[in-house]
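BUG-468 | component: ligand-complex export | severity: low

The export step for pyridoxal-5'-phosphate jobs runs without errors, but we want the raw record kept on the ticket for reference. Input record follows.
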Amino acid sequence: MIVQTIQFCVHTGCSVLPGAGAGRYRAAMTAPLLVTEVPGPRSRELHAQRTEAIADGFGTVLPVFVDSASGGEIVDVDGNRFIDLASGIAVTSVGASHPRVVARVSRQVARFTHTCFMVTEFESFVRVGQWLNAHVPGDFDKRTALFSTGAEAVENAVKIARSHTGRPRVLVLDEAYHGRSLLTMAMTAKEHPYKTAFGPFPGEVVRATNANALRSGLDAAAALAEVERVIDAHGAETFAALVVEPIQGEGGFNVPPAGFLRGLAELARRHGIVFVVDEIQTGLGRTGRLFASEHEGIAGDLTLTAKALGAGLPISAVTGRAEIMNAVHVGGLGGTYAGNPLACEAALAVFEILDDPATLRNVAAIERVVLDRLRPVADEIPAVADVRGRGAMLAIEFAEPSSLTPLPGLAAAVSQACHRGGVLTLTTGTHGNVIRLLPPLVAAPELVAAGVDVLVAAIRAATTEAAA
Ligand SMILES: *Cc1c(COP(=O)(O)O)cnc(C)c1O
């Protein structure tokens, strides 16, 4: 007889099944458990204090204050237990407090918290670079540079591409999201809330048509012709970099038509433009492969990671062709906190969990349970215009059936109903009319399914109300 020992984390009651591998770290709950209205009294009190202390510019999706969280579960300060279908925007992919992350980071915090890698070196920085060089797509000699945030990785990719090519311009696509710093805000497409009142923006950012299967009406070939027209109009020799997301995140989880990204890579190669793949949201297992690029058979000259890389500790990376990465002069790259040792230890724990095949198998199981529930809803309810995505990065879009006029009000109403029912969902999209699901990759498929059942009930309720 096999006796399986289950270790419980004291704070949330989540379980780790050692026999089942590093990937299996799970919330103990099987359904939301609400003991007060949402938000509860303690959260409301703290939120009132927040309003007095914190700048209004920070929006809030769900104004509950968190007490603890694990692999798919969030417990608030009123004792409500939510199913987490957001992962803090694709960050806590291995859960919010995976025991391997906790162990490595705890050990490191007692050894040293910081040296600044540009002052004195430490081993974990090198180990993170080695893993990324070995696993990021591309059969070529690579180098990695570590930073702290996604926007910083994007900005540094542009610096590196300019240094390598001696050219100024950056080409990005419609509906792109690359961050909130001044340069990356210019690269981001969506005006509100990201860009409103924050201009003027850095120049040399040029935008080209995206192949949005639902809305642009362009297939891969037609969209590629448009991109090439824009490149020619500005002069191909003026572009340092072409930056793309393999599935657009904030743009609405837009999955490109087959061949579009390969065509873009080929265009970039033909014109000597550095092809930068922004895998900040899609990377590290999110889409069911280690990198979303693998679904498309592409490899960026530079590939960007952040979000899930540090399991919540801030770390980002640019990984790419050695000759491009090393074009920058010594001293040209860095940052006080770049590749902080606590974050590097967290990343090494994330790699151990991703190295366990059980993790990506679990992502496939999550994809199945979500699509099995959402596809029938799309067939049945006219206001559901599309169900799309890959792995644990899935979305449902709401629009008027014939005109495809976006229905952001419906998406918001459904999302808020999920929150009141104990399920944390996020909206997204250029028009705000998409609900996106980003559960932790390690969440039990049954738990994700229970969350999606609440979502489906909310969609039915909202659409019958609208029809009545
Ligand atoms: C989140 C995100 C960024 C920016 O990352 P930050 O850590 O918020 O600066 C850039 N690109 C993509 C695709 C993202 O999803």
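Assignee comment: Attached the raw record above. Residues 1-12, 17-23 have pLDDT under 50 and may be disordered.
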